[in-house]
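REQUEST FORM: STRUCTURE PREDICTION
Request ID: SP-0412
Submitted by: Lab K.M.
Chain count: 1
Length (residues): 136
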Amino acid sequence: MTMQTVPDGFMQDSRGRLVPEANVRPSDKLQDELVRRLHREAEPVRQFMMDFKRLCFAEINAFLDLVAEQYSTKLGSDKGNVTLTSYDGTLRVTVAVGNVISFGPEIQAAQTLIHSCLNRWSEGANANLKAVVLDA
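STATUS: Completed
RESULT:
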């Protein structure tokens, strides 16, 4: 969605439409103000966390390189997952890299076809059973 300038007296809704402020419920305005204020407050924390994450990765990778060189091997998995523990075992630092899986429109089209089949096949079935099957 492209950002557009919102003229005075209007608010932009989630579909990008301009809505006169007079048509926006007071509770929606309060919620909007709260969300925007909290996001502003969170920005320095977000930046701190990004910087801290970079520091952690750099220091852990340097440590792993040092140990790997010392033992002529490699530490951690191909994905970079590794857990470091303090000597007494009371503290732990874990680097876990997860795969991000996103589904394109093909999967959504397949889901629609499957639901269509399940609806036809379960016609006349108990509504509870049908809900369980369709939710699976």
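NOTES: Strands lie at 10-12, 18-20, 82-85, 92-95.
Reviewed by: T.R.
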